């Protein structure tokens, strides 16, 4: 059995009330042995395994002694020419057979057109595969087969969606590489994907019958996974959706928009809920009009003609038109964002009524925030840091209070929910001394890519490496059994706002877990401070 709680690695702190009371010996005696491999792929012991999809065979590659990867697999038709600004179109027939009878899926596909934030994480949030409008691909990471495994039980599937404020991101970014997560858990398949961002994914033209294309891309990708994951050894009836920031926002949104057909049996939300999006209600097409004007397509009297003109403009020219002129001082990309369409996204009032009434897919939920979310979402300087007052308000009002709200909706509707708060500040993932546990830092520990931020690889027994394995196993436990895993394995009680049920992780930069009263962080949500949006792009403070 996999030892999830090695007493030499994990210090469990006990609260006097509702203690975790993890009993190591009993746990190890009752854990079911986790199979080391499972895949319905051919040539599992070779360097280039193959798998079957409805559109044809794909050939992957070995990326770790325990992991095979199938990368750059299209899940929809290329959104180019007349399909630009259109909803994603499912593949047909044998469209994957581009390279002959077996499609080469050994390299990441390009990410969708985008511009990058001036992030404290540097190059780990820069794609390694180029950019293209033909970008709707996904990547599947499978535990390597060491023995014939055709008769084994299909594996649970964890689909993870990247963040980036709907302006940037993609599966080939080093931070989001799930290889180490798969290697550590050994019995979980992980899927990552691309979706359209900025104006390409959120054009908001009134001439369009469908909006919020970037979220629609994710839904079609999820349907592709459901229909094809068996060919990779996965269980189509056991898919857990996860994501961070806008990836979490999107996942949460799909639980509301597809309440009766969620596909997934659980969801993990890192630093994001649908309320964080703040989808536009009025003047949503302003950026589309600005770019259309820049490329000579604007037509206020015939918006359909304007749209056709925009579909005919070269992608690089559109990219340039969205580009530098719309970047604020923080460097965040503008160029299109989600809007309320009453189909994919709703108003805040609608989410409140739906949330209270349980009109969402009521699947088990794991959700949480980091302690200092705002530290990495505003203008900064290496020497002088950020406006810490504004950062604290962003952390509380925008992220924590919306996580608290979704937790409350689930508690009201008896949905099994576990809520955490990541508080660690580990040196390998903290490139500047003024940074706390900032927005997105937990992704580095979840994926095991913490060594790529500072370019240093800590020893396996370092605190950072140990915390990463802990975090990976925590999420792995939820993926294996979303309804009961965390309670059975960790004796972590389901969320209750009146009890010590909020798990505080890595306090004082130790590998620890302690239950706290949610009110410790949620009291301010009764009268939250207004979010200081002007401070986000304001010049960094002077030393």
Automatic annotation (TrEMBL):
The enzyme class is hydrolase
- Taking every annotated instance into account, which residue ranges of this chain make up the domain Carboxylesterase type B? 48-378
What EC number(s) is this enzyme filed under? 3.1.1.-
Cited InterPro entries: AB_hydrolase_fold (IPR029058), AChE-related_enzymes (IPR050654), CarbesteraseB (IPR002018), Carboxylesterase_B_AS (IPR019826), Carboxylesterase_B_CS (IPR019819)
- Molecular function (GO) terms listed? carboxylic ester hydrolase activity
Highest taxon, organism lineage: Eukaryota
Which Pfam family is one of this chain's hits?
A: COesterase
Keyword terms: Hydrolase
Q: Which Gene3D superfamilies match?
A: alpha/beta hydrolase
The similarity comment for this entry is:
Belongs to the type-B carboxylesterase/lipase family.
Name this protein carries in UniProt: Carboxylic ester hydrolase
